[in-house]
Amino acid sequence: MKKTNLFILGGLFSLGVVLMAADHIDAPAVVGSTADITDLYAFEGANPDNTVFVANVQGLLAPGSSATFDENVLVEINIDNDGDLVEDLVIQAIPRDGIMYFFGPYQPSQTGLNSTIDDDTQYLGQVAISSGSNAITSETNGISYFAGLREDPFFFDSNQFNAIIGGMASGGFNNPGNDDFDGTNVLSIVVEVPNSLLGGTFSHPAGTGVEVFNTWAEAKRKQ
Question: Hey, which residues does 151 pair with through a beta bridge?
C-alpha cells in the first residue's frame, strides 16, 4: 500500500449529519489559509441514495479573489458509522497544479491527528479547480466533484450577535437581520457519494429510530 507524506491536524470542524454550522475565525496558526475550515455541510443529494459533503475553507475572501488552495494542506472528511466518534472511513482532497484530487472513502491506516493518503489504491477522482462564476464539475462512476471559489452560503448577523453577547440588545436577533457574510467568498470542496460507499449506520442516540452517521472535517498540513 503506497502512502504519501504524513499530514498533521491544523483545523477541525465537526457536526452530526444533515446539519450545518460555521466558524469563520479560527486559531492564528491557520486563519487566512486553506487550513482554516469555515463550514461543513452534509445533506441528502438530489438522488436520495447519495450524500453530499461540502467543506468550505478560508472565508471572508473578497469578490474577485483567486481560487488558490495550499498544496501542503489535506482536507479530510471523516465518517463515523458505528457511533464511537472515531473515524471509520475518510474522504481526502488535496490540490496539485490546479486540480483537486479525491481519495476514498476508505478505512484509514491510523486515526486521530495524523493522516496519510493511500494514493496508490484509493484514488477516487479529480476536478479542475474553478475560479470566477463558472463552476467546473466532474463525475466518475456516479461520484461528483467540485472545488473552487463560491459565495459564502452561511447567513450570520455578527454585529447583532456581538451586541447580544455584550448585553446591548435585549430583543435578541432581528428578523431577518443583516447577513454580514453577504458578498464574501469561500473556497469550497464538494463531493457527492453514493451511500453504499459510506458503510453502516447506527441508531440516533435520542431513540428516534433515525439512522445517522457522524461526520467532521479536518485540515492537515504536510510535515
Answer: 185
